[in-house]
């Protein structure tokens, strides 16, 4: 009751995605976050089919669009179809094509809650109707990400810019580090004394 818990239930095996979603429901999670099927490059019809099957479980779904990791992008027309599913409650966006993302937002923002998945793009998505940010870098700079969000809603452009700079500089450091995203975040957390867990193979700890 102190917060909203969302389980990441995606798997490379669709049957396992369904089973993990059922387990999340059994243990009382408030929702699940699910990517389109990874690696197999599914067609729009196949994506719609698998999400209909997930929807039938009855747990609220956060649809996660991350073309760089999945290999396919959710189009505005497909997302509009998915937004009609009874349990499709939210949408996390990690694509970098702002034009396409804008079309998705305009087509579905009255039906699902949208969240930015890439903090450097967050103000652009908040301006288009996003409800918030599903943040990775906040594991390192939580205060700046919260201040960034609050500054946007307060119309404080100076504070927005200053906190945006911290976020951007961390992403620039990430790209220069040569580490994978997760390894960089865990290494940074370790450096500032936060428990981020170990980096698992094949990733290399910094």
Describe the SSE topology.
Layout: E1 6-8, H1 14-26, E2 31-34, H2 44-55, E3 61-65, H3 67-70, H4 76-82, E4 88-93, H5 98-108, E5 113-116, H6 122-126, E6 132-133, H7 138-154, H8 157-177, H9 181-191
Parallel strand pairs: 1-2, 2-3, 3-4, 4-5, 5-6
Helix pairs in contact: 4-5, 7-8
State the oligomer. Answer: single chain
Q: What summary fits the major beta sheet?
A: 6 strands, parallel
Q: What integer is the average pLDDT?
A: 95
Strand order of the largest sheet: 1-2-3-4-5-6
- Helix-strand pattern: EHEHEHHEHEHEHHH
- Rg over CA atoms: 17 Å
Fraction in beta strands: 5-15%
Instruction: Give the helix level as a range of percent.
Output: 40-55%
Description:
The protein is α/β, with parallel strands linked by helices and 206 residues long. Helices cover 49% and strands 12% of the residues. The chain has helices spanning 14-26, 44-55, 67-70, 76-82, 98-108, 122-126, 138-154, 157-177, 181-191, and strands at residues 6-8, 31-34, 61-65, 88-93, 113-116, 132-133. It is globular. The mean pLDDT is 95.
Structure characteristics:
alpha/beta; globular
Summarize the model shown:
About 50% of the residues lie in helices and about 10% in strands. With about 210 residues, the protein is α/β, with parallel strands linked by helices. The radius of gyration is 17 Å and the shape is globular.
């Amino acid at each position: 009751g102190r917060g909203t818990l969302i389980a990441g239930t995606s798997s490379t095996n669709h049957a396992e995605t369904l089973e993990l979603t059922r387990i999340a429901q059994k243990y009382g999670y408030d929702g699940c976050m699910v990517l389109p099927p990874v690696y197999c490059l599914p067609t729009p019809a196949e994506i719609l089919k698998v999400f209909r099957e997930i929807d039938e479980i009855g747990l609220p779904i956060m649809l996660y669009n991350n073309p760089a990791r999945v290999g396919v992008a959710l189009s505005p027309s497909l997302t509009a179809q998915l937004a009609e599913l009874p349990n499709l409650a939210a949408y996390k966006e990690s694509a970098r094509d702002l034009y396409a993302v804008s079309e998705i937002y305009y087509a579905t923002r009255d039906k699902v809650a949208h969240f930015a998945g890439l903090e450097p793009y967050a103000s652009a998505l908040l301006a288009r109707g996003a409800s918030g940010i599903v943040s990775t870098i906040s594991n390192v700079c939580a205060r700046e990400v919260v201040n960034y969000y609050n500054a946007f809603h307060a119309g404080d452009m100076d504070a927005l810019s200053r906190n945006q700079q911290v976020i951007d500089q961390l992403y620039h450091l990430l790209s220069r580090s040569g580490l994978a995203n997760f390894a960089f975040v865990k290494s940074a957390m370790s450096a500032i004394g936060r428990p981020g867990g170990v980096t698992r193979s094949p990733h290399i700890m910094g």
